[in-house]
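Supplementary Methods. Inverse-folding protocol.

Structures were first reduced to a discrete structure-token string of length 177. This string, shown here, constituted the complete conditioning input.
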């Protein structure tokens, strides 16, 4: 297992040649740059520079999918959706338009033993990149392994969860009041 900073973790994703599968398991994430965006969402205010803020990711996704890399993201969420997940749902069209296949799966529709405890990327079915979060929910970097047994295990997890998920276009979230 090797530790990767944010740039190295992003570079690992960008280096995928066939597939980049991302499992997200948290109901809330925190980055300082999202605080104001969440406040605007909560207040029902427009976010005029959202596309510009999202652009580095959408450019990466577009570049990867244009060279034939399959990009899939599965969000396992608690329903009704927490505020952060509601916000994610409202901006997921950026991911979709860039070429990601994003799906949603209610945690209640899984078996606890199916779910790992960490978010991860499975790249080309051979490299697992774990997302590392601090106590404040801030992304602190990544840890990567190319252990074939771990990669094969996460592929099996993906293959169990993905068919039970709902495409973003068809997912109608129940939200917390």
């Amino acid at each position: 297992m090797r530790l990767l900073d944010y740039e190295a973790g992003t570079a690992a994703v960008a280096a995928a040649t066939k597939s980049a599968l991302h499992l997200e398991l948290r109901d809330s994430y925190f980055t300082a740059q999202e605080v104001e965006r969440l406040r605007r969402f909560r207040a029902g205010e427009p976010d005029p520079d959202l596309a510009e803020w999202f652009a580095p990711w959408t450019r990466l996704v577009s570049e990867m999918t244009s060279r034939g890399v399959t990009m899939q993201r599965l969000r396992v969420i608690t329903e009704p959706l927490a505020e952060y997940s509601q916000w994610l749902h409202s901006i997921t069209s950026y991911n979709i338009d860039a070429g990601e296949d994003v799906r949603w799966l209610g945690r209640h529709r899984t078996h606890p033993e199916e779910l790992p405890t960490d978010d991860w990327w499975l790249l080309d079915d051979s490299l697992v990149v774990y997302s590392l979060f601090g106590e404040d929910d801030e992304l602190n970097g990544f840890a990567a392994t190319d252990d074939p047994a771990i990669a094969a295990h996460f592929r099996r997890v993906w293959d169990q969860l993905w068919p039970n998920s709902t495409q973003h276009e068809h997912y109608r979230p129940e939200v917390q009041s």
